[in-house]
Amino acid sequence: MTLRYIDINGFGVLVDESAETKQGDLCYAILSKQIFENINPNLNSPDKCKIVFAEKELNLDSVPILPNWREFNNQEVFRLATEFAIKEKGNPKDLTLGFITGYNHNKAKYTEEDLEIAFGLGAANNANGKPSFKEVKQSLQKIPKYIVMESELNLNGKNGLERASFIPKLIINSEGKQEGIIKEIIY
């Protein structure tokens, strides 16, 4: 299940742009950049997206938690590094190949677009003085475009086929709250 990532003040929500919204669903308005509860499900707008997951810092209790995608990225690099390590009797012998694979996975830390944003920030703030290091660093942070979540088949109806759909796979975390499982991050 591929969902669009939207950054809200450093934290994110995953939205399903194609999902129908029901009364009471939390939604995100792309143009006005606001989170709201859907009170009129008949009013469908291309601007309105259903929020499927949210980072716990946003305190949106009615949707499952989006796991820490920054941590997932580091785990993925480590997984690639150890997966491609040359092994002898089950133990890593030579980590060189694994290091190269992990490095290449995360090599393009800053794209041309990222650098253009940083230079634009500097130009915009030129009249007010230099931008702070924190502002430039924040502008260069890689933010996902989409996050693929693990999903499972949901069979509804008499024979299970007339309303089959995929729903997000959820687990219960240590705090007793529902949380999704990240499968892949697309930048």
Which terms summarize this structure?
187 residues; alpha+beta; two-stranded antiparallel ribbon; 4 helices
Secondary structure blueprint with pairings:
Layout (H helix, E strand, L loop, with lengths): L1 E7 L2 E6 L9 E4 L4 E4 L10 E7 L14 H15 L2 E3 L2 E4 L1 H10 L6 H13 L8 H8 L5 E4 L1 E4 L10 E4 L1 E3 L5 E3 L1 E5 L1
Antiparallel strand pairs: 1-2, 1-8, 2-5, 3-4, 3-5, 6-7, 8-13, 9-10, 11-12
Helix pairs in contact: 1-2, 3-4
Describe this structure in words.
This protein has helices at residues 69-83, 96-105, 112-124, 133-140, and strands spanning 2-8, 11-16, 26-29, 34-37, 48-54, 86-88, 91-94, 146-149, 151-154, 165-168, 170-172, 178-180, 182-186. It is α+β, with helices and mostly antiparallel strands and 187 residues long. The strands form four sheets. The protein has a seven-stranded antiparallel beta sheet with strand order 4-3-5-2-1-8-13. It has a two-stranded antiparallel sheet with strand order 6-7.
